[in-house]
Amino acid sequence: MAEEEAEEEEEGASGEWYYMEEGEVEQAGPVDAEFLGKAVASGQLDRYSCVVWTDGMDDWLPIEEAPGLIDVLLRHLS
Fold first, then answer.
1. By the 8 A CB rule, do 45 and 33 touch?
2. What mean pLDDT is reported for the chain?
3. Which tens digits make up the pLDDT trace of 55-66?
4. DSSP letter, residue 45
5. Residue 4 has pLDDT above 90, yes or no
6. Residues 14 and 53 sit within 8 Å (Cβ to Cβ)
7. Which of 38, 41, 63, 69 is nearest to 51 (CA)?
8. 70-77 and 33-42 helices cross at what angle (nearest 10)?
9. Contact, 60 vs 51, CB < 8 A?
10. Which of 25, 40, 47, 69 has the smallest count of CB within 10 Å of its CB?
11. Average pLDDT over residues 15-36
């Protein structure tokens, strides 16, 4: 099970992401995980209200809960 989660995290970090801020009606992207990490760290995107989606996900998730982005966010926020 842990191996499966690690593979999902790795795939998500290298894939194309779409994002949408609360209140917006259109998604933005595709962008890579590094763009999202930098945008959150700089305040361009709000880590609490921004949702993201990438291929393989069932639904949109808050950016700070998305598999594949957690490590990227931590790296940019530390």
1. no
2. 85
3. 999 999 999 999
4. S
5. no
6. no
7. 63
8. 40
9. yes
10. 25
11. 95
